Amino acid sequence: MARLVLVGLPGAGKTTVARAVGERLGCDVVDTDDVLASMVGASTPDHLRAVGEEAFRDDEVAALRASVARDVVVSTGGGVVTTEAARAILAEQVTLWLDAPDEVLVTRVGEGDRPLLAGNARAAVAALRARRASWYREVSRSSVDTARPLEEVVEDVLRAMMAT
Question: Residue 41's domain is classified under what CATH number?
Fold first, then answer.
């Protein structure tokens, strides 16, 4: 079982915070996007474009299942909560929702290769929030605002993790 799983919208800082928390805890960090890329032999954006969102989400569940089977801090892809199977896995873990205001998320994702944010990133982030927020709440024990300095976020994550 994973020590901690981080969920949230693109740009919330899941990977950055996971690395910092892993360093503080002295444990490994796993990013489900990296696990998925290793499993399918393609980057997550390329795989999503190649197989479509439904097949991509099935593969993402397999990557999540493999990731949480280890004693690690797990950073997930932003859309992992969209499937019932993934939500069931996340509900069994110490899962925290990392969040920030939309304008912060849009600034952080910039011009990255994120197929679901193509076009108007601000509108896409708002739409993703509207669709996913209830799922993030459902699977998470707490939420942490990441629109602050990393060290403050890490302290809040560690406190929230220990409180569960």
Answer: 3.40.50.300
